[in-house]
Amino acid sequence: MSFLVGREIMQRTTRSGILETLGRSSRMAPNKNLSELLAEARGVPIRFGGFEVRAIYEISIRETSALRVSFDYATTARPQALRIRSEKVMLRVGNSRVKDMIFWTDTAPHVFDVIVDPPAGGGTIKVWNEWRDRAGIQNAWMGNAGMVVTVNGDVIVLKCSDGIGDPSFDDFVVSMRIVESTARVVDFEAHRQRRQSG
Predict the structure, then answer these.
(1) In the 8-state DSSP scheme, what is residue 180?
(2) What number of other Cβ atoms are within 10 A of residue 198's Cβ?
(3) For residue 56, what are the contacts with CB-CB under 8 A and spacing of at least 6?
(4) CA gap 182, 55 in Å, rounded
């Protein structure tokens, strides 16, 4: 297996950090929004509305692989995005080779691969949701933004609430898994031009 989905890390956090956060949350002012609660938890997942919610999810990458991303659902109210960032792991799509990428629902294909290339000894990528408001401003970690993450075998599912309105973890649903091949490497520019012309 070329990556560690973080299940063990999530379970340890649940046993230690979640309960602690629950204790703090019970004393928090009721008018605080989700992003404020997550900020106060300092990276520890919190319990919110019966869900375990986090701002960022980390995936450990052990060797060069393809991360297959599927946009399973996105609200049509505003563009949603998946952000992938790392300090050590190189991310590659087409000719781009960087450590920070963002994929928007109004320009990216529904399914695509991102080549993840860690240094010797492996590395970690971080993923979270972003969105654009009516003014076209890119936002993250504001209002009621947060993610509910589930791991089913080798598939990671992010159920994302953007920061607009009440928390709704079906604003943007993304599934990801590591695959052995790189058959779905996509020409993003060509895809964008086809969507604009169509």
Answers:
(1) S
(2) 5
(3) 43, 126, 127, 128
(4) 29
